[in-house]
Amino acid sequence: MPRDAFARLTLLACVLALCVVVLGAWVRLSHAGLGCPDWPGCYGHSVVPEETHLIAAANAAWPQRPVEPAKAWKEMIHRYAAGTLGLLVLAIAGLAWRRRRLVGQALALPLVLLALVVFQALLGMWTVTLLLKPLIVLAHLLGGLTTLAILWWLTLRQSEWRIADAAEAGRRLRGWVLLALCVLCLQVALGGWTSTNYAALACPDLPTCQGQWWPPTDFRDAFTPWRGLGIDYEGGVLGNAARVSVHLAHRLGALLVLLVLGGLSWQLRRARSGGLRIAGGILLGGLLLQLSLGIANVLLVLPLPVAVAHNAGAAVLLLLLVTLNHLLRPREVAA
Q: Which of 75, 168, 234, 332 is catalytic?
C-alpha cells in the first residue's frame, strides 16, 4: 500500500467517529437508548423486526419492551456505524503493525485505540443490559470522544500541516492549551451527566433556576455514581433537588469554559503567527456558538436538533484543542 494509506485510513475513521458520536447523542436525546432491549442484535435479529409475526414474537419475548420501530432503527443505525468504525480501527492497527519498522510510523496509539474500541463495544452492551445506568452511559460517551480525539491526533501527526512560528509560541501557550483541554473534558463529563440523568430541563429559565438564583440542591445525591443493579434509569431516578444540582454544576462549568477557552483565544489572537491568530478566531467562534446552543436548549425546551448540535459542538471544540496541541508541539516522531 502507498505510504500515505495510513493517513487516509485514520482520516476516514475520524470522520466516521464524529458521525458515531453525533448518532449516539441523537439516540440518547430521542430516548431510543433502549430501542433494542438486547445486544448486539435487535429483538434477536440483525435488523429491526417489522413484519407482523416478527413483531408479535418479539413482544412476547420482551413484554416489558414492546417493539417501537422508529426507536429501534435509531439504535441499530448507531450500532451499524459503530461496528464499521470498529472494523476501520482494526485495519488501522493491523496496518500500523505491518509498517512498524518504518521511521515515524505510530504503533502504540493504534494498539491503544483498538483496545479502547473493544472496551467501547462492552460499554455499548452494558448501556443496554444495565438499563441506561448513568455511569456506563457517561463512560460510553467519553470513550467515543476519546476515540475521536486519538484518531484526529494520529491523522494530524501523519500530515504535513504546520503553521509558521507556531512551535516558538508553543512554549508559552502549551500550558493554556492543556488547561483548556482539561476544563473542556470536565465540562463534557458534566454535560454527559446532565443528559444521562435527564436534568437538562431542571432549570427552565435563565439566568435564574426555577425563579431563584440558588434553589434547593442535593449535590450528594446528584453525583452518586453507583446505585446498584436492576434499576431502570430511563427517564431518570433523581429527585428535583438533585437534578437541579446537576444542572447548576453544568452551568458553572460553562462559565469556567468561557473564561479559560476565551482566555486561550485571546492569547492566540495576540500571537505573531497569522495562522495562530486565525486559530484563535475559530476557537472563539466555536466557543460562542456552543454557549449559544446551550442557552437555546433551555429557552427552547431542549429541541432535538439543537440538543444534538450542542453535543456535536463539544466534539468540534475537542478537535480544535487537539489541533492546537498538534500545532504547538514540534513533530519529532509520529505518535
A: 75
Instruction: State the pTM of this model.
Output: 0.94
Q: Which of 140, 135, 85 is nearest to 114 (CA)?
A: 85
C-alpha cell at 19: 458521525
> What is the rounded CA–CA span in Å between residue 76 and residue 82?
10
Domain ranges of the chain: 1-160, 166-335
68 is catalytic: no
SS (H, E, C) 219-249: HHHHCCCCCCCCCCCCCCCCCHHHHHHHHHH
The pLDDT tens digits for 137-179 are 999 999 999 999 999 999 998 877 776 666 666 678 888 999 9
Distance separating alpha carbons of residues 137 and 124, to the nearest angstrom:
8
